[in-house]
Amino acid sequence: MTTSLLPAPAPAWRTPFENDPAGNTTATHAECVAYYKKLAAAYPKQMHLAEAGPTDSGQPLHEVVLSSAVSFSLPSAETRNLDGKLKLTARKPVLFIQNGIHPGEPEGIDASMMLARDLMQQPKLQKLLDLVTVVIVPIYNVGGALNRNSTTRVNQNGPASYGFRGNARHLDLNRDYIKQDSRNARSFAALFQKWQPDVFVETHTSNGADYQYTMTLIATQHSKLAPALGRYLQGQLLPALYKGMAQKKWPMTPYVDFEGPTPESGLRAFLESPRYSTGYAALFNTIGFMPETHMLKAYAPRVHATYDFLKTMLETVAAQAGSLAAARAQATADLATQTTFPLAWTLDESQTETVQFRGYEGRTKPSDVSGQPRLYYDRAAPFTRPVPYFNTYQPTATARRPTAYLIPQAWGEVADLLRRNGASLTPLTKEVRVPVEVYYVEDFKSTPRPYEGHYLHSQVRLRTATETATYQPGDYVVYLEGNVPVRYLLETLEPQATDSFFAWGFFDSILQQKEHFSDYVFEDVAADLLRANAPLRARLEKLKQDNPAFAANGPAQLEWVYQNSAYHEAGHNRYPVARWLGTGRIGD
């Protein structure tokens, strides 16, 4: 396969991948940055290269901007007429491409170097930059790219050497978009907020089954997008991408994720919660894609397929700029009046589509290791047949939009995260007492082992209460009105959301009781409480009657009295972020 019919590059402009006759080489981090520096120096009017913030490796993240605009900044959607009156003009769409989040999956690194060069040197492609601004992060996981080896991708067919999945802190950066433990993720957030891209693409290589395709595709789950964007994605953008790739001789299929033994059991759309890049992007009405080349294909066709996918994406965004802008504008308008927001999702198995899947027959044979039956895919038995595609998700948890959230200033790390991702925090200037809605955490489950540096919480069960609370000068108010990232705020600050800050353990200190009692002292106090409070005694007796094990457990009954008395600390299990449902401004 070749990348369309473009002229071959001059020898001086060939990438390390192109200089390898075997097509089995990916650029090192140093080679990649040096290539972009050379390209930017040669084409300063169309290309800009800059350091875009730190990474955990100690080396900077880089930002490449390709545009016909000399300013290389986000084109304003507002201009002024000669009489000074405001008029709205459509800005060029922004296509944001990020490579090397997993540097052992490096096709996008090499494909983007080639695409950037061709956008500078090929007149036909140059014209696309009049219609679209392209932003490229050459290698996101710099630390992983520097940790080069030839063994960690045991399932993969080339290249000869490559980087490592984990970053310098051994984090998988494609689980770090919400918690942002890494400097990489913090630098990315600043870039993302700066550009507010219309379309985001992050390049990957797949694992899993064997099949005929070189390229598979994860698109933002349409059920999770704003309705206007979901309709545009399904009705216009995806059909154009699949058609464009087929015309370039790269037939695609949705990412091959399935529940049964082989793909014929049915493909399941990947549910990308906000910890992943495309799930994060969806919180800001950005449509995201993860092209996944097939690990068992040779490296050269994987690079060429990625090049053609990026080119097809650029061509499609240029051709559909008006429809894309209209869908995003409608999504923004709808967001302003939306009152209820989904926070968690489950696959709807009652709704299916059908895809014509090009696979290989799955068979079994005795294992040479264990002698037991093992699966293999028979490449001598290719097939094309219809398989069900489960591509609809339904919400399982929702929350109503408050007027504002109140966040005590003690939670500075959370405040920093919110600011970094486009939220506006207003510090109180005086003490206020206001009625608020608060959550008490009654139960949750945690992973038994660390997951990306955290013990992730799920199945959160809450009790809601209305209280009058006091807030001090310097505590924060986050209003959910105007041009604020409403979905981001709800999906991080509502504790029952899949990737909330509570789920990632940012509020774990509230879950530990700080004061308790000595049994022999509290026995007399508890007896006095029960004599003075007949309803409390009645509740205790009812519990003992209904639960024989509780009735036989003296310490449990004493603990119950303590938990239901004024002696139990008010802050235990009380989620510190409160919801304000009033109107106007707090403190007015």
- Span between termini: 67 Å
In terms of quaternary structure, the protein is single chain
Number of domains: 3
Number of helices: 16
Q: Would you identify the CATH architecture of the largest domain?
A: 3-Layer(aba) Sandwich
Report the helical percentage. 25-40%
User: What's the average pLDDT?
Assistant: 94
The CATH class label of the largest domain is: Alpha Beta
Instruction: Show unreliable segments.
Output: 77-89
Percent of residues in β-strands: 15-25%
- Could you give me the name of the CATH homologous superfamily of the largest domain? Zn peptidases
What's the story with the biggest beta sheet?
9 strands, mixed
Computed Rg: 28 Å
Number of strands: 22
User: Can you tell me the CATH topology of the largest domain?
Assistant: Aminopeptidase
**Apparent shape:** globular
Class computed from helices, strands and strand pairing: alpha/beta
Provide a quick synopsis of the model.
30% of the residues lie in helices and 25% in strands.
Write the layout of secondary structure elements.
Blueprint: H1 16-19, H2 29-42, E1 47-54, E2 60-66, E3 78-80, E4 86-88, E5 94-98, H3 107-121, H4 123-126, E6 133-137, H5 142-146, H6 183-195, E7 199-202, E8 204-205, E9 215-219, H7 227-247, E10 252-254, E11 267-268, H8 277-282, E12 287-293, H9 299-319, H10 321-337, E13 340-347, E14 353-366, E15 373-390, E16 393-400, E17 404-407, H11 412-420, E18 426-427, E19 432-446, E20 457-471, E21 476-479, H12 486-493, H13 519-532, H14 534-546, H15 548-551, H16 554-563, E22 578-580
Parallel strand pairs: 5-6, 5-7, 7-12, 8-12, 9-10, 11-15
Antiparallel strand pairs: 1-2, 2-6, 3-4, 9-12, 13-16, 14-15, 17-21, 17-22, 18-21, 19-20
Helix pairs in contact: 2-3, 3-9, 7-9, 7-10, 13-14, 13-16
